[in-house]
User: Fold this.
Amino acid sequence: MNKFKYMLAAAIVGLSLTACEDEDKPYGVLDGIGMVNRSVSLADGSTVRAAMIDKITLDYNNLVGINPDVAVTLNGQTVQPTVNPENRTQVIIPLTLTPYQDYVLQIPAGAFYRSDDKSVIAEAITLTFNTNTGINPALLASSLINPNATPEAKKVYNLLVDNYGVRQLSGSMGEVAWGTGFAELIHAESGKYPAIVGFDYIHLASSPANWIDYGDITPVKSVWEAGSIPAMTWHWNVPVSKPGELTIWTGEQAMPGDWSGFLQLTDDASKELLSKAVVNSVITVKTKDVNAGAQGSVKNSGWSQLADGLEYFDIDGDYSVTLTADMVAEIRENGFIISGHDYTATEITLTIPAGGSMSYDAKSDQFLASNVLVEGSWENTVAEADVKKLAGYLKLLQDANIPVLWRPFHEAAGDYTWGSWFWWGNSGVEVTKQLWSWLYDKLTNQYGINNLIWVWTVQTSDEGKPASMDKIRAAYPGDAMVDIVGADLYEEALSNQTAQFDLLYDLVGGKKMVALSECGNLLDVDAAFNDGALWSYFMGWYEQDDNGPAFIQWNLNGEWSTVLNNPLVLNRGDFNLK
Assistant:
């Protein structure tokens, strides 16, 4: 993350200067020293976060030179100011700060001069400040955004508030098949169970089924009763295309008995329509004048049968083909060919099933986020039904007095430079914020779901790091709509991500807790604590192969044991919410 530039304020340090002819001063003075400050004033005597400042920038009203014989010092150690080569009226003083230190920056008179006249020098500046700062619990919102939050949700929130900046809660994401195997693996590795155990409503469309049934809350209930806090993510799968029938071709194409007839649907216009095909879509060839012994044929663009059994087959009227995944891939890429003999084709349609192929990926679907907010649209119909179904499952948890760290619309649609990652961002950031408010209203006010602690995750770049502050500010739904803000980071093992923490802390002005809502490798807890940037909790992403949960890519050197056995970390059994 690029750190913010901090500049000295003339009003703050008492330097509103003009060209000087004061006979009491033996030198001229450069005038117009000023500062632009995006978020935190570096005033004399102020307290700043060490990770959020790496330079001071002074803007003068004349071209500036630097006198190498006059030392600028920070706590007595020489620092090396430079003139900005792109703006020669600006001096940049680099700073390397550590937390919980007192600092004195001294700029002697004559350290800078007007470049065309070395006798015109800048006045001395002495600035004292400190980095005795970290998380300030006094700034935190004292209650959840939902005034009707359940007692259990309030207890969880208060637990997080009481430990914010002091101790960090451990957490693990859970397998998407509604299980707790990854938490068990972590226990086997570390001897500890995570304080928070994650679940995911990714298979909402399939539930209830014999392999996934969110109506069976046993896994979540067992986690809560054992002393861990449940956390829910929703990889919200929606139909990739609008259910219904598309006309691919209409007209009359004779298929004579001499096998000479065919209809080649391999042009760009046909492929554009066929791009909406999904598994279990149906191609129907409508016919007339079907003679005895007539046969149909469906071929790929290379004139081979599209699938086994489709070379030539008997027909006595209209005929249809249900598409497999391989067939979908072929026709979307290359189109297909209809042939046969002794009939006339009059129309070819593609029927897309309701609830066909599902995805949360924005890059391949036709499900428009903006239309979710348009009453009567097919997207709105799908979304309303999904939220109603989801609310029923969440209500089961509420009725069992189980609170939930609730993280919908995670990663806020990704970095828009390369397009959104998830469908909830495919209509732009303003719609994403509206969807957040819409879902909050639906679950809270319409369905009375009050056991949720609302966790919003910042949008991230395609490199997996939080995006710029400007983009994050643009995507943030606002303090009134969010209980906790989180980042999803996949970094080196036991690295220190204080700068990323500070980005979020600055976003919310310390008023909301900052959590590590997803991580691959675990981070350095001690370094974060020493920097005053201890995440409220972390959620290690689960891994799994054919044999079940496993450590495959992340935390391969005992990091789970190292972190969960750190005294700064709270695990299951270290607190009681009953």
About this structure: Confidence is low (pLDDT under 50) at residues 1-28, 31-41. The chain has three domains: 6-130, 155-238+359-570, 244-352. The domain at 155-238+359-570 is CATH 3.20.20.80 (TIM Barrel).
